[in-house]
């Protein structure tokens, strides 16, 4: 594999005195869609916060295209090329869909402005039809799409999606899955945190499993699909 876009090496994270992550290792290659799978409380969101600079690691490294993100504030991590969509998918409710997109617009780390509102509307036609609507009036699934779209407007090198399927109706989950596959086909590099393994089997190329703050498995999605023991031990509900 060519040098990874994102590499997390031996990362420990503490909240106060309690250690939450224990030597997390992850490597996401260009164009991959990696699923970070694990039960509730396993440490998925904390891993994302460690990458995004919100929960800085006490030990270990986070590298983006070979450059360390150590000690960078969240806005500098974003500027370096990490597009982080947190679990609570916040939109600006009193602003239109289009204004929400414009707020997210920035050049990528190498000055590229690949994503424009026109491009977003091509990929997210549902948002095109709602561009003048207040974001607060969108459904949960539409808001999830809007936060993904707004983050793309920042031209990130990697998109981090924390539980994009959470709390959404099955049809909407399917639509989000189709969208992620489409982004993958366009070459966007994606890391998705999920409890929903079935969702990830349909969208990811690679998978890592996290349990009690440690990565216990990492392979292709096909390998995970064929590994009943790992799925039952760490992911069965
Ligand atoms: N702000 C916090 N302070 C203390 N403990 C926390 C905090 N946030 C999460 N935790 C704990 O860290 C562990 C991992 O949480 P989290 O990363 O949110 O897991 P996941 O996203 O996999 O559900 C859980 O035991 C959780 O209770
Ligand atoms: Mg979480």
Structural notes for this entry:
The structure is a single chain. The model has no long low-confidence stretch (mean pLDDT 95). The chain has one domain (6-235): P-loop containing nucleotide triphosphate hydrolases (Rossmann fold). With 237 residues, it is α/β, with parallel strands linked by helices. It is globular and about 45 Å long. It has helices at 44-52, 74-80, 97-103, 117-123, 125-128, 140-152, 170-185, 197-203, 221-225, 228-235; strands at residues 6-15, 18-28, 33-37, 59-64, 67-68, 82-85, 158-162, 189-194, 206-211, 214-220. The longest helix has 16 residues, at 170-185. α3 runs parallel beside α6 and α7 (170-185) runs parallel beside α8. It is built from 10 helices and 10 strands. It has a 6-stranded mixed beta sheet, sandwiched between helices. Magnesium ion binds next to α1.
């Amino acid at each position: 594999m060519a040098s990874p876009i994102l590499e997390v090496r031996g990362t420990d994270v503490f909240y106060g005195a309690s250690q939450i992550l224990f030597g997390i290792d992850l490597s996401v290659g260009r164009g991959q869609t990696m699923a970070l799978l694990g039960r509730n409380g396993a440490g998925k969101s904390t891993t994302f916060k460690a990458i995004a600079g919100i929960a800085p690691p006490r030990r270990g490294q986070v590298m983006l295209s070979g450059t360390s993100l150590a000690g960078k504030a969240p806005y500098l991590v974003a500027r370096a090329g990490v597009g982080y969509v947190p679990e609570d998918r916040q939109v600006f409710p009193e602003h239109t869909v289009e204004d929400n997109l414009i707020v997210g617009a920035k050049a990528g780390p190498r000055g590229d402005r690949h994503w424009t509102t026109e491009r977003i509307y091509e990929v997210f036609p549902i948002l095109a039809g709602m561009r003048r609507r207040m974001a607060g009036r969108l459904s949960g699934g539409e808001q999830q799409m809007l936060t993904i779209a707004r983050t793309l407007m920042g031209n990130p090198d990697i998109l981090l999606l924390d539980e994009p399927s959470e709390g959404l109706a099955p049809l909407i989950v399917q639509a989000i899955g189709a969208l992620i596959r489409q982004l993958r086909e366009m070459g966007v590099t994606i890391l998705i945190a999920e409890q929903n393994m079935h969702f990830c089997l349909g969208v990811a190329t690679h998978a890592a499993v996290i349990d009690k703050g440690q990565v216990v498995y990492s392979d292709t999605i096909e390998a995970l699909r064929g590994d009943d023991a790992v799925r039952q031990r760490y992911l069965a509900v």
